[in-house]
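Exercise 3.2. Students should predict the tertiary structure of the chain below and write it as structure tokens, then compare their answer with the key that follows.

Predict this chain's 3D structure.
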Amino acid sequence: MTAVQTERDAMHRALELALLGPRTGVNPQVGCVLLSPSGELLAEGWHRGAGTPHAEVAALSSLADPADAVGATAVVSLEPCNHHGRTGPCSAALIEAGVSRVVYAVDDPGAASSGGAERMRAAGLEVENGLGAAEVEQAIRPWLTATRLGRPFVTVKWASSLDGRAAAADGSSQWITGAEARADVHRRRAEHDVIVVGTGTLLADDPALTARGDDGLLPHQPAPVVLGTREVPAEARVREHPLPFRQFDGGDLELTLGALYADEVRTVFVEGGPTLASAFIAAGLADELLVYLAPTLLGGPRTALTELGVADIGAQRRLTLTAVERLGDDLLVVARPAAAAAAAEHPATTPPPEPDSPFPLSTKE
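Answer key:
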């Protein structure tokens, strides 16, 4: 096996390790593999959450003998950080351990945490970036997008009939989709920091805004956020949520997202009805759309989206489909606003995806 293939395999493993870490919170998912000068696996590690050792330090700590790090290659899914937070800079840890070469996939876009590559090069280490960039970009896209834009990554979800209705004419909507689709929604809720609903939906449906499974509440709960000026009733189920809800007037969505980002929120799940979903899309603040389509027809005025600011066909909001999945009798369509996806995923400082590793369109059954 060539040295290049060994490092490619190690990067694949580093990404597998990264995804063992929590998807929520202020820190990215990162994995690290340490290779001997001859390409043999020495140790591996991943970041397990805020306050725990970063992936590089976890890998170094797993070495049978610390002296084995001398002359080793560190293969890391994200540029080793260069700042003091709850833990020290990983770039300094690799330098001090005696690692001679570092290969990483994607530059750290953080204003405070970037610069690790430059620091390591200045210390005499050989540093290479871009290996596996396409895969890592896709895997940790929410964190990268949030860090690059300085606001949380926003997922907008809705369920509708095939004719685009979110409810029957009388407003009833439980349930358009089946049990498998609803279970998928709860799983995805648990992968976000907060869940957002408008006061209109809250007053009409009284949602609990929790993430639930067959055995009750899932281990991670998104914090509830309510947008709107109407008062939340004292008996509203959101008041029974494991985490206290926060309320914003919703008049300025960018300001609201900025406040959430400052409070270490990196992912937002919008599940607040047609008006709120449309507002995020119209404002260009929706990074991903989850559309659950049920094989039914409802007709009537209760459309899944309302006004998007599209005056003519030239102003249509084009989407990029990234997955289509069957969930029982329903379909889940995952899409991204095309222009926003291109801008967020391929900034000038980020290497373009490798041509031999495109992100496939999923058609899971």
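Discussion points: The longest strand covers residues 153-161. The chain has two domains: 3-139, 147-345.
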